[in-house]
Design goal:
The complex is a heterodimer of chains A (152) and B (188). Chain A has 152 residues and is mostly helical. Chain A has helices at residues 6-9, 13-40, 49-76, 79-83, 86-113, 116-140, 147-150. The chains are: A mainly alpha (152), B mainly alpha (188).
């Protein structure tokens, strides 16, 4: 490597970043899930979905910013290995779907524009996407990267 | 005695099978993490409410009440899934310093709950009127301790198992791609 990534010269950098990444994910997806569960009819049923959205959205957004930036740093430690890992690609696709879904369908449903049946569907799909992101992340470490078969 | 229990546990048919399964183990681990995310969101919001930083349009006691049951279900699910993960490598975990740290932190969370149970957690009617500074202390402690649990949990994977002391061939899944130079499986 011509230019060393400082992440790879420290034993501690990767695990510490991982902790930040996991915590930020728990906070972003966890606060988003409270709105999703409310749309399904579970949890904070005393509150209206639009009030819940207003109360959680700042924390969801802050968490997402931290999770994406810490994720980019983690990715930078070994980009080709991640890029050639199917679990990582699945994770990125699900992350994109989860975020887009959250800021389009969920936001709209939470604003009161959806019927209860629609809300349940939108909330369930959102929870499914977030769960898929986690599964993708864990399976990165359990699937073989296709790197070895492609590297000359 | 604990060591003998750990050795017996991981040798049971359930955990031998789970350890040997290429996909079941990561699925259990993923579910554990999914619940952590959902649980983490609820812990964050209840504690932020006690600290006065979020959900201020609702009374603090009401927020505590509404999240109580979902948090309990999530906690039980996390503990069951966590026990399944532990059982796979019980002997290795016995020696793992981060696993011990995690257990101690969980114990401290229990102590934190017991200390403030009467005055705060079961006293939600009073919280609806005003949040005392002791509740803010409890909330800050809870946030710090839970964050510590997550970090200790991640730390578990970074400890090399003392292979000279361990009986079973323990590496759970045969597929392992992302190892750092020190041989640690990289997740996330």
């Amino acid at each position: 490597m011509l230019i060393g990534n400082p992440l790879n010269s420290s034993e501690l950098a990767f695990p510490v970043l991982e902790c930040i990444h996991i915590l930020a994910f728990a906070f972003s997806a966890g606060t988003a899930a409270i709105v999703d569960l409310r749309l399904i009819g579970i949890g904070m049923t005393d509150q209206s979905p639009s009030d819940l959205w207003k109360d959680t959205s700042l924390w969801t957004l802050l968490g997402l910013i931290v999770v994406v930036f810490s994720g980019l740093l983690l990715f930078s430690s070994d980009p080709d290995n991640y890029y050639l890992n199917y679990a990582f690609l699945l994770k990125m696709a699900c992350l994109l779907l989860a975020v887009v879904h959250n800021y389009t369908a969920v936001r709209k449903a939470a604003s009161g524009a959806a019927t209860p049946a629609n809300g349940r569907l939108v909330g369930s799909v959102a929870l499914f996407f977030w769960a898929c992101v986690v599964f993708g992340g864990i399976f990165i470490g359990f699937l073989n990267s296709t790197l070895d078969s492609r590297r000359v | 005695m604990i060591l003998e229990f750990a050795q017996w546990l991981q040798a049971t048919a359930l955990f031998t099978g789970l350890r040997g399964s290429a996909y079941l183990y990561p699925v259990v681990l993923s579910l554990h993490m999914v619940i952590i995310a959902f649980f983490g969101g609820m812990v964050l919001l209840t504690n932020l409410r006690l600290l006065g930083l979020s959900m201020s349009r609702y009374p603090a006691g009401a927020v505590l009440e509404r999240f109580r049951l979902p948090k309990r279900y999530a906690l039980i699910a996390m503990l069951v899934l966590g026990f399944l993960l532990f059982g796979c490598k019980a002997e290795e975990y016995y020696y793992n310093v981060w696993f011990r740290a995690k257990l101690i932190l969980l114990l401290l969370i229990g102590v934190n709950y017991l200390i403030f149970r009467g005055s705060i957690y079961n006293n939600t009617a009073a919280l609806d009127r005003a949040v005392p500074s002791s509740a803010k202390l409890a909330a800050a402690l809870s946030l710090i301790l839970w964050a510590g649990v997550v970090c200790a949990g991640r730390g578990i994977g970074y400890i090399e198992p003392p292979l000279d002391k361990i009986h079973a061939g323990l590496h759970c899944a045969p597929h392992a791609a992302l190892y750092s130079r020190s041989g640690v499986r990289r997740l996330v």
